[in-house]
Amino acid sequence: MPAPASVTIPNDTDIVIVRTFDAPRELVWRAHTEPQLMKRWMQGPPGWTLSVCEIDARPGGKFRNVFTQAGQQPLEVRGTFLEVDAPARWVHTEEYGPEGSSETPAAVETLVLTEKAGKTTLTLTMRYPSKEARDAAGQGTADGMEECYRRIDVLLNERMREPTTTRGR
Questions:
Q1: Would you call 139 helix, strand, or coil by DSSP?
Q2: What domains lie within the chain, and their CATH numbers?
Q3: Which residue from 39, 105, 122, 168 has the least number of CB within 10 angstroms?
Q4: How many CB atoms within 10 Å of residue 155?
């Protein structure tokens, strides 16, 4: 199992998460861009489920994730892709709440995947519009990411490694 994610705060607005996966970059990219795979690892806070996952990973494309838990208001995370260079990099905005409801400016996330000897290093930079916004979103988001990344490890070691010709049978 890979080492846990490293989380750093290099300045007043950024959080940088670095995590290595024992899998080729293409598989890690797929885990981050295919809704049926994302629903298997991106669970949200404890007790929550990713019930809606829509992603159009191309410049100008949108994504929308809705997390639900019985008795709670849904939590929606959405944004627009600004840059996409599959399977190496994306940049997208990120806002919380339904379209038009966000009271805070969007954060910008940059995901970079680099592969060496069959292992992929993910570097996720979350840039918030202010120190206050970073602090409000920050540590809880970073802490939850490692739990999600452990689920990706399991996913990568399961059916994603099957040859394409047998997948889906």
A1: helix
A2: 6-161 (3.30.530.20)
A3: 168
A4: 21
What are the pLDDT digits (tens) for 30-71? 999 999 999 999 987 778 899 999 999 999 999 999 999 999
Q: Where are the beta strands (DSSP E) in 22-118?
A: 49-55, 62-68, 75-85, 89-96, 107-116
How high is the mean pLDDT of the chain?
Answer: 88
Phi/psi region, residue 168 (left: phi>0; alpha: psi -120 to 50; beta: rest), is left
| Model confidence, pTM | 0.87
Q: Per 3-state DSSP, what percentage of the chain is helix, strand, and coil (rounded to 5)?
A: 25, 35, 35
How far is residue 138's CA from residue 142's CA, in Å, rounded to a whole number?
A: 6
CA Rg value for the chain: 16
- The answer for residues whose C-beta is within 8 angstroms of residue 76's C-beta and 6 or more apart is 64, 65, 66, 67, 96, 97, 98
